[in-house]
C-alpha cells in the first residue's frame, strides 16, 4: 500500500496530524517494510513474519466462528428480554473475539439462533431459539469437576459432611474475621443460575446480588483473557438489572473477582482463571496476540550505548520533521510522500539500506591472525624503506668531499 493511500485513514487509525505515518511505520521494523518505487513513490508492506501471523489469525478466527456464535447465544440467554443492542455488543467485540464485521456476517448468517430487529434505540440482536444444553454456567461445570476430583482424591470409606465450611482463599489474599464470615454466609446462599428467570428478584437483596455475581462470573468466563473493563459492565445495567454500585459488588467479593487499578480505566479479573498472575488456559487468539507483541517489541535500534545515542538523534530528527509538517498547515487529504521527497537521500534519514542499521560489533578475537599478517607486512615495508634510505645516503664532509666508510 502506498503512503499516500495510508494517509487517508489517519482518523480511523487514531493518529493526529502532528505525527507522520512514516515515523510510525519505522518504529516497528519487524512488522512493516518500506519500499521505494521511484523517487515519488513510497510504499510499505508487512514483513514475512507479520504476514504469516496475519494469515494464522484469519485461520483461527474461521475455525472459532462456532465458538463465537455460542458466546453470543449465551449472552442473549442471560439477558432479561433475550435482546441486546448491537451497539452494546460492540463493546465486547475484543473481549469475546468477535470479528470487526460481526454485524454484517455472524448476526445474519445464523437465523436459526438469532435475528436483528429494529428498536427505538437502534438495531438489536434477539434470540430466536433457547437451547437448554447451553444453559449450564461455567461455575456449575467447575463445581461438578471439583466434586468428582475431591471424591477421587479422598477415597473415603465413610462419606460424611465436613464439620467446618472452609473457604479456600487465593494466594496473597488476607481478610479479617468479619469479612470471612460475610463471604461464608454469601456462599451458603443457594446458587442461582445466570440463565434462570430473575424478574422476580428484588433489587438490593442478597439473592439478587448472588444472581448478579453469577452473571458477571459467566460473562468473564466467556472472554478471551478472563477480564473486562468495569465500564463495559455498566453498559448492561438494563439487560441484566445490575445495580448502580457494580464496582462495589466486585470489591465485596475479593474471593471471586480482582479489581485492577492499572491503566486509564479499571478492570475486573476472574480470580480462579489465574494462577500466580498468569492465565491458566490461554485462547489461541491470545497466543497469536503474544506473537504479535513480540514483533512489535523488536527495537528500531539496539540498546547499546553507542547506538542509543544515534537512535536518540534520529528520533529528534523525526520529531523536528513532524513539527515542521504540522506548521506547514493541515490539509484535508494528507500524504507522507509530499514531505519525504526532499529527504529521501538525506544523511540524517534512517533508511533500510543504510549500513548503520547493522549494529553488531566486530569480533576482534577471530581476526587476530589477519591483524598480525597485516602488521608484519607493514613492519617489513618499513624495514625495506629504512634500508633503501640508508643505501642512498653517502657520508660527506662539509666541503663536499666523500668521507671514508668503515
UniProtKB/TrEMBL annotation:
It holds the Pfam family PORR. Residues 2-297 form the PORR domain. GO terms for molecular function: RNA binding. It comes from the Eukaryota. Transmembrane segments: none annotated. Residues 323-336, 344-369 have a biased composition (Acidic residues). Residues 309-322, 380-393 have a biased composition (Basic and acidic residues). This is PORR domain-containing protein. It comes from Lupinus angustifolius.
Amino acid at each position: 500500500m502506498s503512503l499516500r493511500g495510508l494517509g487517508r485513514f489517519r482518523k480511523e487509525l487514531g493518529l493526529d496530524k502532528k505525527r507522520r505515518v512514516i515515523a510510525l511505520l519505522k518504529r516497528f521494523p519487524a512488522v512493516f517494510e518500506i519500499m521505494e518505487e521511484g523517487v515519488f513513490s513510497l510504499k510499505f508492506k508487512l514483513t514475512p513474519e507479520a504476514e504469516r501471523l496475519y494469515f494464522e489469525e484469519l485461520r483461527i478466527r474461521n475455525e472459532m466462528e462456532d465458538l463465537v456464535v455460542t458466546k453470543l447465544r449465551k449472552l442473549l440467554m442471560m439477558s432479561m428480554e433475550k435482546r441486546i443492542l448491537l451497539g452494546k455488543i460492540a463493546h465486547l467485540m475484543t473481549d469475546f473475539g468477535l470479528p470487526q464485521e460481526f454485524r454484517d456476517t455472524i448476526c445474519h448468517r445464523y437465523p436459526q439462533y438469532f435475528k436483528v430487529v429494529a428498536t427505538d434505540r437502534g438495531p438489536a440482536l434477539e434470540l430466536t431459539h433457547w437451547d437448554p444444553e447451553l444453559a449450564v454456567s461455567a461455575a456449575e461445570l467447575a463445581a461438578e469437576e471439583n466434586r468428582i476430583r475431591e471424591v477421587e482424591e479422598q477415597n473415603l470409606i465413610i462419606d460424611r459432611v465436613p464439620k467446618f465450611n472452609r473457604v479456600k482463599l487465593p494466594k496473597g489474599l488476607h481478610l479479617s474475621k468479619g469479612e470471612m464470615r460475610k463471604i461464608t454466609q454469601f456462599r451458603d446462599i443457594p446458587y442461582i443460575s445466570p440463565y434462570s428467570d430473575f424478574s422476580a428478584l428484588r433489587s438490593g437483596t442478597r439473592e439478587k446480588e448472588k444472581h448478579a455475581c453469577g452473571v458477571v462470573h459467566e460473562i468473564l468466563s466467556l472472554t478471551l483473557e478472563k477480564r473486562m473493563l468495569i465500564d463495559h459492565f455498566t453498559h448492561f445495567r438494563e439487560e441484566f438489572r445490575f445495580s448502580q454500585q457494580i464496582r462495589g459488588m466486585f470489591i465485596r467479593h475479593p474471593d471471586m473477582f480482582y479489581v485492577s487499578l492499572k491503566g486509564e480505566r479499571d478492570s475486573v479479573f476472574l480470580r480462579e482463571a489465574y494462577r500466580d498472575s498468569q492465565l491458566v488456559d490461554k485462547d489461541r487468539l491470545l497466543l497469536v496476540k503474544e506473537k504479535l507483541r513480540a514483533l512489535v517489541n523488536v527495537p528500531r535500534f539496539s540498546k547499546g550505548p553507542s547506538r542509543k545515542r544515534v537512535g536518540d538523534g534520529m528520533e529528534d530528527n523525526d520529531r523536528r520533521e513532524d513539527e515542521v509538517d504540522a506548521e506547514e498547515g493541515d490539509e484535508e487529504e494528507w500524504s507522507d510522500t509530499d514531505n519525504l521527497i526532499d529527504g529521501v537521500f538525506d544523511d540524517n534519514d534512517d533508511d533500510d539500506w543504510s549500513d548503520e542499521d547493522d549494529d553488531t560489533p566486530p569480533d576482534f578475537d577471530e581476526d587476530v591472525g589477519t591483524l598480525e599478517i597485516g602488521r608484519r607486512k607493514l613492519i617489513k615495508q618499513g624495514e625495506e624503506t629504512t634500508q633503501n634510505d640508508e643505501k642512498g645516503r653517502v657520508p660527506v664532509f662539509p666541503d663536499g668531499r666523500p668521507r671514508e666508510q668503515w
